[in-house]
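BUG-311 | component: ligand-complex export | severity: low

The export step for norvaline jobs runs without errors, but we want the raw record kept on the ticket for reference. Input record follows.
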Amino acid sequence: MQHFLSLFDITPDELKRVLQTATVVKSKLIAGERPSILQNKVLALLFEKPSLRTRVSFETGMAQLGGASLFLGQDVGWGKREAPSDFTQVLGQFVDAVVCRAKQHSHVEQLASFDAMPVINGLTDLCHPCQAIADVLTIQEAFGSYAGKHLVFVGDGNNVAQSLALICAMLEMKFTLACPPGYEMDADWLSRIAAVSPRADINTTQDPVAAVKSADAIYTDVWTSMGQEAESIIRREAFADYQLNKTLLAAAPASARVLHCLPAVRGEEITDEVIDGKQSDIIRQAGNRMHAQKGLLVWLLGRDWICKNVS
Ligand code: CP
Ligand code: NVA
């Protein structure tokens, strides 16, 4: 069964197909067309952490594709009320796929292990693959193409950074992480990327100014991710020199675009003037979550449509 727990679950060609589908479906929406590609399909959303973008973009995307969605909060008792096998096999009889946002990546792996329905990762501590697809779509729109572009991530080598490093490797883009010592990406994750993409151009530096000098896009995310709240004071100190502010942006080419997955802590990892500035694509980037995920949903659940409608 095809799951989407991380970008490792699909090939670069499949990823390009998802991106092409997202672009076609977005153009159709702008032209006023909402083809019912997933009519009568039902998507469950099983979330252990809060969300605005991921939840609403999947729900609205599914509605626009003629399907339905079902948000499952804590009250369904996942992991608490019954055995995971019972929970998952029962859910799989009702829905066509599930998006899961989990505290630990092992939770989405366990959900997928029963092959009861395709499982889509809606963020874990390890990675955030749906976000990365939307981010590349945003870069493609900004520059006409993502090919050969240099994405510089200033901040924590977290779930978002890890998915971006992988997607850049898959699409032959250059990726640089500028972070303080101790906040690099997971070594096992990087080894896995190297194994599937031997030519990956992934760099880590402690110097954000040097890193952004050749950036096409500069990305940041919160210094303290969900679940790390106890470390927030120590992290604020560690990342103090890694704020994306107008001084750092001035070191980048004037053509560089600014990205952030949101939610942001304004005044911490990014300043108001940058987030709201002329180089920012952040709001459009959030909107692209829906378009990118529609591409993914159609690829997972309505592939015949792609064969007929996406060249
Ligand atoms: N970027 C993102 O995943 O946002 P939410 O946490 O609001 O879903
Ligand atoms: N790194 C952040 C991303 C939120 C979308 C977190 O995991 O909280």
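Assignee comment: Attached the raw record above. The chain has a mean pLDDT of 98.
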